[in-house]
């Protein structure tokens, strides 16, 4: 029985969750779509990052989720570094979501995002004490933990690059200060030697 439950959770994990990473073009956007039925739930968590290994800043971008006819924006995030969207669709159709970079010319900006599949049983419903409800609730919590770990990894990389850049600037500033002190000392020695120099006239 335990093997069956573990297999079911693993199968749901593989079929309902996908992690993706895409490079955003300068002044462009990348769009994806999901075909959903009525009352399906779509969850998208994302984070903007920088592919440059020596980057020290947290890049930002826009996220827009459109309705099935692409006339209305169901969810919009402007100038954010990360976000989490969970939406239960009121009708079936093809729902499109876009990561937008139209306000920036950065060529190394990318976005890491996770897609969670449909949930037919509300995992927060206290009455959903069936095996199906328990498995889906466990799957949801596991995916949330995975998304948080992915977010922490990217933030750690950005903070590490910032710390290394700061250390490098402090090092070169110290070298510059040492050079100024040495040059000032040499100038003072030269000036004092000339000041006390005895000059004789014949």
From TrEMBL:
The keyword Transmembrane helix applies. One of its GO terms (biological process) is endoplasmic reticulum to Golgi vesicle-mediated transport. Residues 29-117 form the GOLD domain. It is a single-pass membrane protein; Single-pass type I membrane protein. SMART domains: EMP24_GP25L. One of its GO terms (cellular component) is membrane. Residues 1-19 form the signal peptide. InterPro entries: Emp24-like (IPR015720), GOLD_dom (IPR009038), GOLD_dom_sf (IPR036598). It is found in: Endomembrane system; Membrane. PROSITE patterns: GOLD. Belongs to the EMP24/GP25L family. PANTHER family: TRANSMEMBRANE EMP24 DOMAIN-CONTAINING PROTEIN. This is KLTH0E06292p. It comes from Lachancea thermotolerans (strain ATCC 56472 / CBS 6340 / NRRL Y-8284) (Yeast). The lineage of its organism: Eukaryota, Fungi, Dikarya, Ascomycota, Saccharomycotina.
